[in-house]
Records
---
Amino acid sequence: MARGTILVTGGAGYIGSHVVLALGERGERVVVLDDLSTGRADAVLHGELVVGDVGDGALVRRLLRTHGIDTVMHFAARTVVPESVADPLKYYRENTCATRSLLEACAAQGVRHFVFSSTAAVYGVPEGGIADEDTPTAPINPYGSSKLMSEWMLRDLAATGALRHVTLRYFNVAGCDPAGRIGQSTPEATLLIKVACEVALGRRPELAVFGTDYPTPDGTGVRDYIHVTDLADAHLRALDHLRAGGASLTLNCGYGRGYSVREVIAAVERAHGAPLPVREAPRRPGDPPMLIARAERIREVLDWRPRHDDLDTIVASALAWERRLAQGAR
Ligand SMILES: NC(=O)c1ccc[n+]([C@@H]2O[C@H](COP(=O)([O-])OP(=O)(O)OC[C@H]3O[C@@H](n4cnc5c(N)ncnc54)[C@H](O)[C@@H]3O)[C@@H](O)[C@H]2O)c1
Ligand SMILES: O=c1ccn([C@@H]2O[C@H](COP(=O)(O)OP(=O)(O)O[C@H]3O[C@H](CO)[C@H](O)[C@H](O)[C@H]3O)[C@@H](O)[C@H]2O)c(=O)[nH]1
């Protein structure tokens, strides 16, 4: 069957740009729609970039029609948990309402396949800190709620037979393209590994450890960090699954192992070769103590085989990219 063109929303952002690169390496036809609010045009190394809002229904319908798009990969979103606590309606507008508008356009134009960037934040505080795909969803911050509502709309639309979807619930994504072509360039980043690398290179004065009294082995937050290149591969496999006629799926994307904030700091110190200036700080609003994936299903169903499942590898690639940024790269 002929491969249709893929619309990648948010393809100029951190994760989206890595997936666009992987699609390009496979010779897929790609159109990126991104408003460049946190993404960068020069991170789009493949396909055509259209600058615009994913919530602009008329624009999206025109793109779907004129490019003959049969698959949408939807990354565009606001992604900062504490910001969502402070400004929840922004998250419901930019994540939930924009996704509703996108889905409406997809249904109207006959898009058949949809790959959605969801999040482990839909689980809230799962028992034991570990979640499989059947763990009840109970988000504890508006970011997670905004994404869960999007999941529900997608599920319900798929139930009408309009399209099939793979919803990928990412745990904590980190690291950069091992070849150093693109990386994480998010301005005013809040994610731990990115921030720690900025501190290592003197671009920030210190690293705040948000919470040292969690019920975890060393008192700091525990997360399941997954390399962005392995995550990009999961997207290609999701695409192949849908093209082969596979059923709609919801899958965790993680390695099934957790690291504390202190363990991440130690890994950055190993890669950097020097201690980081660290300050203990209060808990950050909206943060669960521990979030680890049970991630067997994606291996079984998509035959996903991660190749970068190692914290030191993840951190080394993130630090290498940060050095390039410090030298003026994108
Ligand atoms: N980074 C993580 O650890 C993580 C974890 C779980 C889920 N996710 C999800 O993955 C997706 C990508 O996240 P990321 O880390 O690459 O973030 P990012 O901010 O780097 O990328 C988001 C991209 O979407 C664009 N965008 C935002 N709003 C838009 C709009 N209304 N119209 C068009 N473009 C818009 C931004 O300019 C940016 O390029 C998001 O949906 C996020 O919720 C990320
Ligand atoms: O400067 C920092 C930054 C983070 N942390 C801590 O490090 C851990 C990881 O925090 P991140 O900000 O790196 O990531 P989150 O777990 O908050 O959230 C990320 O992963 C989630 C899923 O697990 C969501 O999908 C979300 O999009 C994405 O931001 C948390 O315990 C946090 O408190 C610090 O101590 N200091």
---
Amino acid sequence: MRGLVADYYLGELVSFKGIAGGVENTNYFLTTTTGRYVVTLFEEFEFEEVPYFLNVVAHLKHKGFNVPAALIDIHGERLRVVKGRPTIIVDCFPGSELKQTDVDSCRLMGAALAKLHVAGEDFAEHRESHRGMEWWRETSKAIEHELEPEQATLLMSQVAEFDVFIAQHDYLPKTTIHGDLFYNNTLFENGQLSAIIDFYNACYSWTMYDFAIVVNDWCSDMATGELDMEKYRSLVNAYIHEREPSAEEIAAWPYMLRIAALRFWLSRLEAWHKAKHDPERLAQQHDPREFQRILEARVRYAPALME
Ligand SMILES: Nc1ncnc2c1ncn2[C@@H]1O[C@H](COP(=O)(O)OP(=O)(O)O)[C@@H](O)[C@H]1O
Ligand SMILES: N[C@@H](CCOP(=O)(O)O)C(=O)O
């Protein structure tokens, strides 16, 4: 760490500490004589895959968002290699993770998300999601046999339905989306949204899909999967105040909520599947059943949800 810090204009190393909580990357809080920073080692991306994400964040920072842009080292580089992994250092933002969402935080997120979507429209690099159609076809097939029969039926029927839906709806508006804007990827300070972090699922995709990812995490009762309608109204109303979805986007909304639920049910199942022989890793995984319940609730709730 001392060697890494010496390659930046960050003064002297004071201390560093691993951050627990993330499941994809290795993160450290770093304190130097000039301030606090976060060091991220990318565990799932190779070196050449990382610049896209750094460019997305730089674009949004340029547009005034509090997002963690990579610092430049003394050689003019923002991406390094540490222990064989691509590595960056970013500013550590003030604030802390919410323990849970409420009507006010949902309102702030709804407005910020709409602005983020508008700001992402003119970002020129268009990267496909690494967790899109191909991924869910392959992953669902690979883990189908590990599931209870009714889980497998739900998973495979939803994948088949979305294949058809997606082929018919490619024309829906797209932008550069965050792709994983769960409330644990935001920081709040004094009741205000102080930063949006973890852009490593960013891609060029449907705007309403990203909106649905956010609604499913921020507005669901995790015990039942049902929407908390007060949080839901707060987030949706704040969003549409900043960016009004078209009639076609509104018609697609119930499907977007389902696709977004499937995406995270499947990624949690995949992570659980990969970790199942390693009790320590297994204990760190997010619970797939939360997103199974959300998907089941969205499937039950057939009528259009957008007000
Ligand atoms: N720039 C930052 N400023 C403050 N805290 C951060 C920053 N980046 C990460 N963190 C903290 O580290 C945790 C894990 O980071 P994250 O990027 O979400 O990693 P992972 O992708 O592994 O989940 C976050 O939930 C947050 O508490
Ligand atoms: N938000 C995802 C997990 C993404 O990984 P993380 O490393 O950001 O925690 C989920 O909740 O399934």
